[in-house]
Amino acid sequence: MKNINCLKIAVDAFPYKESIHQICDYSGEQIYKKQALTLFKEQNRSIYNLAAKSYLLSNNYKNIEIEIKDNLYWQNGEQVFAEDFARSIKFLCRDKGNRFRTLFSDVENFKEYSIYISNDIGIHCPDKYTLCINLKYPNVYMRNNLSLISTSPLHISNSHLSAGPYFLSSLEENKFLLKKNKHYSLDEVANSFNEIEFIKIKEDKFADNFQCGNIDVSCDTCLDYNYYKLARNSINFKEISSKLIMLLSPWKKFKEIPEAVKYIIINAINRKELSDRFDGILKESFSYLDLYDYSYKEKIIKKIEPLCEPFNLTIAYEDFYPNKEIVKLIANQLKAYNINLLPEVDEYGKWDSCTHLRFEIRWSMRSTPLLFYKSDLSRGFITDQEFEEARKYYSYILQNNKEEENVIFYKKLDQILIRNAVYIPLLSMPSGYFIRPYIVNSSLFDQGTFIHYLNNIESV
Q1: Bridge partners of residue 434, in order along the sequence
Q2: How far is residue 11's CA from residue 221's CA, in Å, rounded to a whole number?
Q3: Residue 357, SS3?
Q4: Helix, strand, or coil (residue 193)
Q5: How far apart are CA 234 and CA 221, in angstroms?
Q6: Alpha-carbon span 20 to 295, nearest angstrom
Q7: Phi, psi of 386, rounded to the nearest 5 degrees
Q8: To bridge 338 with a disulfide, which of 42, 150, 250, 306 should be the other Cys (CB 3.0-4.6 Å)?
């Protein structure tokens, strides 16, 4: 039976942060996206106005003036003003553990403001509909940064209020319930669901909960990859164009890894073997750029010799399919080089393990890989000389918004980061889900819109 009041969507985990301004995980992005109201939004690889009515970027790319729309409202009916957006960006700048914080490090006086030395920062509102951001360095990607859901407005007295299409009504152990914001005016309300239930189902490899009618949209990261090819043939199955990347990254004991061990883990992992184990659904990856469909050639390495003495290399991962299986495959490969890979399991979002490496799945902005590189360069695992070299490439990118021209500089950044094992790309990961035919698929994960159903719902 079709339920046009409440839409049920499966996820395999709930966000481990409960504020939209601190969201840094994939599930959190999905759940909070429908509560978000950002100044701009990504669509495919382009940036469009959402809460912004207009914007003006100075010729030197160091000043941006944004006029917001005058029909923006919180869920309680109060009007949203420019100062509410300024407040959220300032919050990000001081939220030390925030994944997106470094994206605003180009703002004037960011450093002093972020560590509470000063309360002055290059963000101000000359009137209630205008937001001005002044930068120390040119940055043509500031609109991209302002499309992140964590830059949604922050209410002056209630940080839990939402100004997007939906708001959080209740939170239970296995259910997030969102309800429609009746004051939201940036999308047509006709033929839209009044409620959205996000239901936590940690394991559902064959979408059984969809097949038996418990949910309307299956989890997009749960499917068994041997089943994935069959799922693609279903009329009710949709693939998401953006991909995720599986990689190894430095963790708490990273600096204890000998250079000889780093060299092996950078160059000896057989990605094709990993990909074949999952029927080629997981693709070999050698760079963040693989997620953006830019060609990248694998570097040819001469024969790699095993270590003379064994080394115990610890690695942390979260126990979601197929993380455990991939870590085991990598462990078997590294045995040939006298490296014993010792896994430790972290609870989702806890990341308590004290290991050399982490196995991670990352996602980023669809329009640009900039966030990946910005985050890695700020981690402090490269030499001062390499950092200065990387900074030159990064500065060029920030002054040129033609991604196809920036690819050459991204590749140079890759060379620096990967040879230092700051990230070791492994596989790109597709995602897809089953969805009822009466749901308008384009509205499901679109930022700034209600989720809609078809007009002729009874005939579907």
Answers
A1: 237
A2: 8
A3: strand
A4: coil
A5: 17
A6: 34
A7: -65, -35
A8: 306
What one-character DSSP code corresponds to residue 198?
A: E
CB 25 within 8 A of CB 16: yes
Cβ atoms of 71 and 59 within 8 Å: the answer is: no
How confident is the prediction along the chain (460 residues), in pLDDT tens digits per residue? 467 799 999 999 898 888 999 988 888 889 999 999 999 998 877 899 999 999 999 999 999 999 999 999 999 999 999 999 999 999 999 998 888 898 899 999 999 999 999 999 999 999 999 999 999 999 999 999 999 999 999 999 999 999 999 999 999 888 999 999 999 999 999 999 999 999 999 889 999 999 999 999 999 988 999 899 899 999 999 998 778 999 999 999 999 999 999 999 999 999 999 999 999 999 999 999 988 888 776 666 678 999 999 999 999 999 888 999 999 999 999 999 999 999 999 988 788 899 999 999 998 777 788 889 988 998 889 999 999 999 999 999 999 878 888 999 999 999 999 999 999 999 999 899 999 999 999 999 999 999 999 986 654 5
Beta strand pairing status for 166-172 and 175-180?
Answer: antiparallel
DSSP 303-339: PPPPPSS-EEEEEEEE--TTHHHHHHHHHHHHHTTTE
**What radius of gyration, in Å, describes the C-alpha atoms of the chain?**
23
Amino acid at 411: K
Contact between 440 and 452 under an 8 Å Cβ cutoff? The reply is: yes
Q: How far apart are CA 457 and CA 437, in angstroms?
A: 9
- Provide the sign of the torsion angle of the four alpha carbons 18, 168, 442, 71, taken in this order: negative
* CA atoms of 253 and 263, how far apart (whole Å): 17
Cα 202 to Cα 330: distance, rounded to the nearest angstrom: 24
CA distance 383 to 88: 34
- The candidate with the shortest Cα–Cα distance to 8, out of 188, 193, 189, 190, is 193
User: Over 134-157, what HEC string results?
Assistant: EECCCCCCHHHHCCCHHHCCCCCC
Helix or strand run (H / E) with residue 259? helix 259-267
Please give the domain boundaries of the chain with CATH numbers for all domains: 1-36+164-218+435-460 (3.40.190.10), 46-151 (3.90.76.10), 242-431 (3.10.105.10)
CB-CB neighbours of 3 under 10 Å: 12
Nearest CA-CA partner of 64 in 145, 154, 163: 145
Q: In sequence order, what are the beta bridge partners of 176? A: 171, 198
Q: Copy the structure tokens of residue 250.
A: 């430095």
Give the residue from 259, 278, 261 showing the smallest Cα distance to 314. Answer: 261
